[in-house]
Design a protein that fits this description.
Elements lengths: L2 H13 L20 E7 L2 E8 L2 E6 L8 E2 L10 E13 L2 E13 L6 E2 L1 E7 L2 E6 L12 H4 L4 E6 L2 E7 H8 L6 H4 L4 E7 L2 E6 L4 E5 L5 E6 L3 E5 L2 E5 L3 E6 L5 E5 L10 E6 L6 E7 L2 E6 L5 E7 L11 E7 L5 E10 L3 E4 L3 E6 L6 E7 L2
Antiparallel strand pairs: 1-28, 2-3, 3-5, 4-5, 5-6, 6-7, 8-9, 9-10, 10-11, 12-13, 13-14, 14-15, 16-17, 18-19, 19-20, 20-21, 22-23, 23-24, 24-25, 26-27, 27-28
Length: about 375
């Protein structure tokens, strides 16, 4: 990544940081315009970061894989996940695309239906930090060779590609924070990142944990999110938490949104309030699976949900919506239709951006003008 691009983009993001949730106002939502397509042809888009109006970072998890492959995985509808070098992070400036880092590791099915690679990113004074997903048992990563070692890490992007500095996959093998048993219980899928002083917070959707990464790459556990028992047509079932998003809360705390795992039944997803050193508590509940959260310019928390009628692998893919969460936990619809399996949202002062059609090699970046 060119130093000039890093410096300019960092100045933009520092000027556009949202207010903390504790400063939230209760004014009604702005009126949204019809969505405008900013970009198409995105390869399984995941996290996005709007730095200013018209300036957006996008993580693309990649395309179909070839070989080597990992065992069949629940993270890809039971299909093999195979390695490719098709992941990327791009900067869109008023629709013009600049690839900041390309050719990163990606695990994709051979038919291109699923891919896991770059999941989120963050601009820092030291450069671009990239979250590399895995969505698999981390003990199999070595079978992927040198390229596969990017997966399951937090990495800096440089001229020669990624430079991992924190190994979340190794942490899962050594610590297994949620204590999951068996092959599927040892799981790693770093998904979202938040700057935290000189280090970072990472929501690991595989470990069911919020992790802190120090500046030197040391990993520690901030919170572990418990499974819950839900009622299904076939009787009670245990549902994993699957944390997918983290935003800053009041007085040094954090809010974490959960996707919830199989069987994807009902509105059972929760938003957790995490105070370091204390057990997490439920702040709001009754959501469909949550894939991302952000706050608008007024400091109000918004969540991106997906509505399942069966499973994530149904055709057509699940619909999505954006919901505002009031300080008392009340949910208010913001975008109720027009989204198909979205993956991320990000606000500037005047625009809401959403990554849509994320389980596809033809994902889209949409913009809703606020007025």
């Amino acid at each position: 990544m060119r130093p000039a691009v890093v410096l300019a983009a960092t100045m933009i993001v520092c000027a556009a940081l949202p207010l903390p949730v504790e400063a939230a106002a209760t004014a009604s939502s702005p009126v949204l315009s019809a969505p405008r397509v900013v970009a198409e042809g995105l390869a399984h888009p995941r996290g996005i970061r709007a730095l200013a109006d018209g300036v957006v970072l996008v993580a693309e998890s990649g395309r179909e894989g070839t070989e080597p492959c990992l065992p069949r995985s629940p993270g890809s509808a039971g299909a093999e996940q195979c390695l490719s070098r098709t992941g990327a992070v791009s900067l869109f400036t008023h629709g013009r695309k600049t690839t900041l880092v390309g050719g990163t590791a990606s695990l994709g099915t051979k038919d291109g239906a699923f891919a896991h690679g770059p999941s989120d990113m963050l601009l820092t004074p030291k450069g671009l930090v990239v979250v590399m997903g895995l969505a698999n048992n981390p003990t199999g990563r070595e079978a992927l060779g040198e390229a596969g070692r990017e997966l399951g890490t937090l990495a800096y992007a440089g001229r020669k590609g990624l430079r991992p500095f924190a190994d979340l996959a190794a942490h899962e093998i050594a610590q297994n924070p949620d204590g999951g048993a068996g092959f599927a219980g040892l799981w790693c899928h770093p998904y979202a990142v938040l700057a935290d002083g000189n280090g970072f917070l990472v929501a690991d959707a595989g470990a069911n944990a919020l992790l802190r990464v120090a500046a030197d790459g040391a990993v520690s556990v901030v919170a572990v999110f418990p499974a819950q028992t839900v009622t299904t047509p076939n009787g009670p079932a245990q549902v994993q938490a699957v944390p997918t998003s983290v935003v800053r809360g009041p007085r040094g705390s954090y809010y974490v949104g959960e996707y919830t795992g199989y069987p994807y039944t009902g509105k059972v997803a929760r938003i957790w309030h995490v105070v370091p050193g204390q057990q997490p508590r439920v702040f709001a509940q009754g959501f469909s699976p949550i894939l991302d959260m952000d706050v608008d310019a007024r400091g109000r928390l918004h969540v991106l949900e997906v509505e399942y009628t069966g499973s994530p692998h149904t055709v057509p893919p699940p619909a999505g919506r954006v919901t505002r969460v009031e300080p008392d936990g009340t949910a208010v619809p913001v975008v109720a239709e027009g989204l198909t399996m979205p993956s991320s949202l990000s606000f500037t002062r005047d625009t809401l951006y959403v990554a849509d059609n994320s389980v596809s090699a033809n994902g889209r970046l949409l913009a809703y003008r606020l007025s």
